[in-house]
Amino acid sequence: MKKVAYDCDVLVIGGGIVGLATAYALTRATPGTRVTVLEKEPGPARHQTGRNSGVIHSGIYYRPGSLKARYAVRGAAEMVKFCAEYGVAHEVTGKLIVATERAELPRLHSLVQRGRENGIPVRELGPAQITEYEPEVRGLAAIHVGTTGVCDYSAVAERLADASGAEIRYGAGGEVVQIDRRADRGVAVRTADGSVVRGRVLVNCAGLHCDGIARLTGDDPGMRIVPFRGEYFELARPELVRGLVYPVPDPAFPFLGVHLTRGIDGGVHVGPNAVPALAREGYDWSVVRPRELAGTIGWPGSWHMARRHWRYGAGELRRSASKSAFTDAVRRLLPAVRPDDLVPAPAGVRAQAVLRDGTLVDDFLIREGARAVHVLNAPSPAATASLPIGREVARRAFEALRLARGGAG
To answer: What is the pTM of this model?
Structure first.
């Protein structure tokens, strides 16, 4: 058999924070590992990574023992250390989770217990203590989580790219159009500029397009990405909020509700509202890609999800269509806010994995195929957890490399 000339040992598809953290973990664990990253955009972190609110999550929300809980708690501490080491703007601010209705109090208490199970220090607050932290915020009770912070995740991604030493191909040279995966010969990827990149092992960190990349590889991901647009506003009077203020989340959904986040630049983000996007990169209602929309509508899980959660979805759509309704949601936490305080800000799109039965995957999902590792669900808190996620994906990629080297490749 003719010997294959490999361009790299590990070929990573996706230049968001998870793909770049994987490249960083690969080269740090075994210096000399040749890594190539393919990214269809002209630079890193152009989608989920660069369009979130910049929060370093504590891990308090996530089921004890889950990947989200373990990696967020560990990742938050590591992210603060990484930012300090690499000169990335960051701040550990702490945050309030505020109950505004009596029905939310049992859920708030459950969060206290969950935080303690996850090893996160929390402080319970009454109404007067809430105003000590946030003078304009009102609630029946709250908890203060001291380990939450903010940072510039786009800058983190850039530092990861540089520090990894990986070859990174952007633009048409990084846009995947075809994958030929052979168990005995590795993976050959054709890109939009006509070039072919050959690797021993493929790692799929394609975010909004990860299910499509898995299918191109020849693996059935068993899920589909259903994109949800997160709509944000900027607070015209940022002095109303000192730090981070969140509502008590509904445990039936992976979304945290409309919250207030003072970013590293001093501005206050308000949102997100979560509505179905009409394209994988549908950052506005005007962005419609019929083929992608047909793929979402044609997935049985989308219909099961819609039937199960239509009331929640109707509320999100109402807040999307009506600034007054959105303002009312914010006023539950911040009564002083007025409609003209809310200035539209760039939206993000969450890559949410949905199973065939309509289940919204609530944990990180990583699956393997022959010579391939697929990251199939890595929405929030994936940026916070990116360093531990990257190490886990790298571990699996090294195992795939070991098996490949034991064979003909």
So the answer is: 0.95
